[in-house]
Amino acid sequence: MAVHDAGQAGASAWLKRNGVFVALAVLVVVMAIAAPQFATAQNLTNVLQQNAIIGVIACGMTFAIIIGGFDLSVGSTAALSSVVAALVITATGSIPLGLIAAIGAGLVVGMVNGGLIAFLRINPFVATLGTMTMIRGLVFVSTNATPVFGVPFGFTALGLGKTMGVPNLVIVLAFVAALLGFLLHQTRFGHHVYLVGGNARAAAVMGIRTARLRFWSYLIVAVCAAIAGILLVGQTASGQPQAAMGYELTAIAAVIVGGATLGGGKGRMLGTIAGVFLLGVVSNALNLLGVSPFWQPVATGLILVAAVGLDRVRDDAA
Q1: Backbone phi, then psi, for 9, in 5-degree steps?
Q2: What is the span of the domain harbouring residue 239?
Q3: Residue 6 predicted with pLDDT over 60
Q4: Residue 128 and residue 61: Cα distance in Å, rounded?
Q5: pLDDT averaged over every residue in the chain
Q6: Does 2 fall in a domain?
Q7: Where are the alpha helices (DSSP H) in the chain?
Q8: Is 118 contained in some domain?
Q9: What is the total count of domains within the chain?
Q10: Distances in Å between the alpha carbon of 31 and those of 92, 192, 275, 283?
Q11: pLDDT, tens only, 148-166
């Protein structure tokens, strides 16, 4: 009996850790049967490409959520960076300078968010909601809410092109996920992020500089949002003030669905990537089945609530 109970406990723990991968695999198999066009190379490539930008943002968001917060300003930051990149490129004719300016804009936002949350101890919801609103407003005012054109059309090779048959956006996502995954799982910094998210007071007693760690985590989130903004320019050869609206909620949902908790201390980069593509496959499935796109946010919300509810039930049972 003890062996049987231990086996059940082990299976339950495995399912809890890998449930998102099981759900994704089951959904892919079901869709391949229900809609044969789903399993075509073209459609699967589209799913990867369409969700890569959200994936980059979600990789950064993973740090904020594991450390016990989140960032509502990532969509606005992506739009800001796309507009800054387009403005600098059109003004100077230098793509590298535009990319540096876009990353710089993201760093400024990250420093503001990190300072408000880590050093002034403002609640992450209030701080990032405020910066989200202000940044979007400033972008609209500075551009009169109109796109910034003039970026060389060849720049779209970044957002729409492929390398050896693999979409460039997917390559960028893989690089960002691998780099941040290594930082999160294989370094002292990442280990401390988990400790602070799990119990900030205990981490402080251990000598971990919790405020500095939070500050750097929000810098990471903002830089990922800036990279996303650059990729958005690569899709349209323009800076779009309206870009990335709603991306913040989708990124948060992907991280939570991937196994993290809003309480902090849990989550992993691979789970985040699986969460991104689970939501992406659901969206693609609804399209292929002819369901109205207005139902897609409903499906995302239901999946998020189910993931959070299931995690809470399991924690209570434990």
Answers
A1: -65, -40
A2: 52-245
A3: no
A4: 12
A5: 91
A6: no
A7: 2-34, 41-66, 74-92, 95-114, 124-143, 156-160, 168-186, 188-198, 200-205, 210-236, 247-257, 269-288, 296-317
A8: yes
A9: 1
A10: 48, 40, 17, 12
A11: 999 999 899 999 999 998 9
